[in-house]
Specification:
The protein has 2 domains: 1-47; 54-181, Ctag/Cox11 (Pfam 04442), CATH 2.60.370. The protein contains 1 helix and 10 strands; from the N terminus they run H-E-E-E-E-E-E-E-E-E-E. It is α+β, with helices and mostly antiparallel strands and 196 residues long. The N and C termini lie far apart (84 Å).
Length: 196
């Protein structure tokens, strides 16, 4: 090998290294984009960020001293022929007290359908103190044609909200659900029906 061949090989090696680094960075960014949504959901669930309620296994150990109004909101996304509403629009709840409320859903179409409820609490900072023990939003709901279900939500407001300065001026909290069509499974048709 003569000395004239070396300068030609070095630029090729440098270009190859740059191509490998660029391809690796692109793959890493692609992987992070797919991981962003699950990581964001975990973060919200752990912190109550963006009004995400907490999941509790047991009722609270202590009661607080504040009473708050809890309002209930129900929505259905386009493409889902369901009627969805809370059986009571609001309740007055003592912090640390466990409450059970019911929502009613009815499939207004002549076809079976399936949906999952997404939820939110407002104001956003209240999500960290809104603890759900049982909720229909944890699983997919399937309704036969014209079927009606009553679905419970068991929850409490964590007494720790009384120590949060951001919650001092809050006297009402809204729990909001929206049902979205899920993909058909096992012959269940989930979209395309219109209410009669």
């Amino acid at each position: 090998m003569n000395s004239e061949d070396l300068p030609q090989k070095r630029p090729f090696q440098r270009q190859r290294l740059i191509a490998i680094v660029a391809a690796s960075a692109s793959l890493a960014m692609l992987a992070l984009s797919f991981a962003a949504v699950p990581l964001y959901r975990l973060y919200c669930a752990a912190t109550g960020y963006a009004g995400t309620p907490q999941v509790a296994k047991l009722p609270p150990q202590a009661r607080g001293t504040r009473d708050l109004i809890v309002r209930f909101d129900a929505n259905v996304a386009p493409g889902l022929a369901w009627k969805f509403e809370p059986e009571t629009p609001e309740i007055k709840l003592h912090t640390g007290e466990t409450a059970t409320i019911y929502y009613k859903i009815t499939n207004m179409s002549d076809r079976a359908s399936a949906a999952r409820a997404m939820f939110n609490v407002s104001p956003d900072n209240a999500g960290a103190y809104f603890d759900k023990i049982a909720c229909f939003c944890f699983s997919e709901q399937k309704l036969a044609p014209r079927e009606t279900l009553e679905l419970p939500v068991v929850f409490y407001l964590d007494p720790a909200l009384e120590k949060d300065a951001a919650m001092a001026g809050v006297d009402s909290i809204t729990l909001s659900y929206t049902f979205f069509v899920t993909k058909p499974a096992g012959g269940v048709v989930a979209a395309g029906d219109k209410p009669l």
